[in-house]
Structures are given as structure tokens and as C-alpha cells.
Amino acid sequence: MSDRYAKYKSLKFDRPHDRVIRITMTSQLKLGVMDADMHREVSEVWRDVDSDDSVSAIIITGAGKSFSAGGDLNHEIKVARDHDLRMQTMKETRDLVYNMVHCSKPIVSGIRGWAVGAGLAAGLLADVSIAARDANFMDGHTKIGIAAGDCAMIIWPLLVSMAKAKYYLLCCERMTGEEAERIGLVSLVVDDADVETKAVEIATRLAMGPPAATRWTKYSLNSWIRNAGPIFDASVAYEFMGFAGPEGIEGMTAFLEKRAPNFPRTAVL
User: Fold this and answer.
1) Degrees (nearest 5) of the Cα angle 170, 90, 219?
2) Strand partners of residue 137
3) Would strands 11-17 and 107-111 be described as parallel, antiparallel, or unpaired?
């Protein structure tokens, strides 16, 4: 494996095929929750694999039984109270999305267990997303008093329609992998035991296909996503304004204290 990947601590790399690199998100936290290091690394890794001439296709997956259940709220409380840390994390959030969109090589995600927040973004921005039937999807933001950010505004309305996007993002509803496929949020569902095999099969097929034709097709399709860039940029700004606001602080604190949040009943927009 190239030395370019030696700097990554939360991501593990292997080669299920000589032209395919698999990125496995590893976390010491429950359900694959992203700590600060993993969030930064997932935002940066796409530039390295894109510039690696030995790679023709990429798999992103999680270790163990979960993909990634979003960010570490103990760290997010620090983000809420530290302006410089908040700006750094906001940049990483934008980089995660744009670096995946701009990566020229096809990306396949293999999603098992929970996919929430930034973890959900990495799963849904893949070019082919494969989920276990019993996987659990949720955006998670409004539940903790923060405007939906990460990938939500740039990809959900394109995938599932505005009506479904509004329902799931405003109400913070959970859905299974089977429901996610039914409404078009993911490409395919398979049994949990078959996620890894299917991801390798599709990534290998893409890696062995015509590279220029594959990459130009991806680039053209992603123009739909790039057109939503200004909407996404605004949503990320609203998201990080919310982190420092009273609703975000209360929502995250309540979640960590395992109690119902006491949000204010009015807001000035």
C-alpha cells in the first residue's frame, strides 16, 4: 500500500482487487461514531485516492456492524463553544462533500447498521450505494436543534423528491435500508451478509471498465449535484450557526443527558 495512506489513523486501507481500494472507517466509539480525527480524515482522503494512479475504483465502508452513526456529540459541544474549532469543522464538512463529488473515480459505499450525519453523507455521495435491508438511515440534525446540513441539501431532493426530502429531514424520521431503496435514497439493498461481497463485485466491474468513459459519465452526472452548490453552502452555514445557538446547545446537551430537549417555542429568522 502506498505511503500516501500512512498518515491516516482512523481509516484502514486494503485491496480486494488490484485496481480497487477499500477504505474502512474504524472508530473506538459505539456504532462507528466519528471522532474529530475521523471526520477530518474522511474529508481529506478523496484527494489522495483520486491522485493514486494504481486505483480505478473505491469502496467506502464501516468496520464491524455499523457504517457510521454520525459525529461525536461530546466533541460537537466543544465545536459549539469554540469559534476556531467550529470554522475548522465547517470547512471539513464542505470538503467531505465537494471532495467526494470532485473525485474522478467511481465510489461504491457498503452500508450496514447505522448511517447518520457525516457518516450518511459518505454513504449517499458514493456513485453506487449498497445497503443492508435492515440498515438504519437518519439525517439526525433537527432532532438535536440544528438545521439539516452535511450532504442533505445537495443530494436528498435529487434522490428522493422534494416531498420525501422535506418529510425525512424536517421530521428526522428513521428509515431502513429497504425503505431507502424504495424511495431512491440508495442504489441497491441486499442481505446484511452480502453487502461486502456486492460492493467488491460492483467496484471491480467499474475498475475493469473503460476508465475515461466511466469518469466522464460520473463527471456529467455530478453536474446536477454541483448545480446545487450554493444551496449546500448556505445549509452548511445555517448548520454551524445552529451549533453555537441555544437550540443546538440544548439539543446536544439533552441527547447526551438522555432527556427530552426543551426548545424555545419561537424563533427569529
Assistant:
1) 80
2) 115, 175
3) unpaired
Instruction: Assign residue 83 a region (left: φ > 0; alpha: ψ between -120 and 50; beta: otherwise).
Output: alpha
| Element of type H or E holding 33 | none
CA pair distance 181, 176, nearest whole angstrom: 9
In this structure, which amino acid lies at residue 21? I
Of the candidates 24, 53, 1, the one whose C-alpha atom is nearest the C-alpha of residue 199 is 24
pTM over 0.90: yes
Main-chain phi, psi angles of 137, to 5 degrees: -115, 135
Separation CA 136–CA 249 (nearest Å): 25
Mean pLDDT of the chain: 94
How far from the centroid of its chain's Cα atoms is residue 196's Cα? 18
Q: Which helix (H) or strand (E) holds 18?
A: none
107: helix, coil or strand?
Answer: strand
DSSP 145: T
